[in-house]
Amino acid sequence: MTSPVSTPSQAPDATPPAASAPAAASINLRSQLGTYIGLALVLCGMVALFSSLSDYFLTVETFVTIANEIPALAVMAVGMTFVLIIAGIDLSVGSVLALSAAVTAAAIVQWKLAVPLAAALGLATGLLCGAITGAVAVAWRLPTFIVSLGMLEAVRGGAYLVTESRTQYVGDAIAGLAAPWVGGISAAFVLALAIVAVGQLLLTRTVFGRYVVGIGTNEEAMRLAGVDPRPIRVIVFAATGLLAGLAGLMQAARLEAADPNSGVGIELQVIAAVVIGGTSLMGGRGSVVNTFFGVLIIAVLEAGLAQVGASEPSKRIITGAVIVAAVIIDTLRQRRAGTA
After folding, report:
1. Is 168 helix (H, G, I), strand (E, B) or coil?
2. CB of 131 within 8 A of CB of 237?
3. Residue 143: which residues within 8 A CB-CB, separation 6 or more?
4. Where in the cell is it found (predicted)?
5. Rounded to 10 degrees, what is the CA torsion of 207, 212, 215, 221?
6. What confidence tens digit (pLDDT) does each residue in 68-119 have?
7. What are the Cα distances from residue 161, in Å, to 61, 93, 111, 260?
8. Which CATH fold would you assign to the domain 41-339?
9. Which residues are CB-contacts of 318 (< 8 A; sequence separation ≥ 6)?
10. Residue 14 to residue 166: CA distance in whole angstroms
11. pTM of the prediction?
12. Which among 258, 236, 253, 240 is positioned nearest to 75, based on CA atoms?
């Protein structure tokens, strides 16, 4: 009986599948760490730059102020990260923020509901708006850009109707969310950090997160694998609406009022933070932690420009240039990965 002879495919230099997975994981981990370090260095460089330009920037008060101003932007950016990963976009988050805050304020001031019930109603409003956006886009296979643009206008109109085009003052009814905790840091900031952590774990450590990345990478392949992407898309948009509703509560708590004009243009800041954090506009790649770095970069940039006396037009030009630079870097990264 002859002994079996090795075929070319069984050559010693062929990498066993079991060995290739850890190697790929190690490469991915190094890439993530490199991105974290790169974003941290950019953030530190900006802090050093503005500290050299202003004697008042490198103070505890400045950083506490930044921390207490970013929770609304941070929680919306978490939702937008998932939306961009599935190759979608949601332009309605600013309007959803305004409507959710308006519903909460109206429930407290006009309808005399208990504060917990009013807050739940505001959150439910955001959840419903996001679910409608996702369901319409999925049911009729419409571009999410167009659907969310229509929702932006419709929901903003709803905010004006609920408030009768007037600012609704809620006083300290929900001020506890913006109340300072240790070192002057607000409860909203602590909650935002918790949501960032949960979002990152959901994206990287759950089956749902793998499905989200898979849909953004190759939706047809997910279908062939037996995964229906439609409910996942709706869930992502609904969750983004819910987080926008929470952002509305955070902003209303900080201002002690709900303004129907609040959140105008904030969707561009949200998208900018996510893109600066390295999430691909083409879908399939992103990180919630990196998005939080993007939020911090935008916040530090705005605070620094304000302290050095930059005019509003100058701040817009510089912020726009940073966004374009982030998109260019993302495009170059994609091309390099495609040719590797």
Report:
1. strand
2. yes
3. 137
4. Cell membrane
5. -10
6. 999 999 999 999 999 999 999 999 999 999 999 999 999 999 999 999 999 9
7. 38, 18, 15, 9
8. ABC transporter involved in vitamin B12 uptake, BtuC (1.10.3470)
9. 301, 305, 310
10. 70
11. 0.90
12. 240
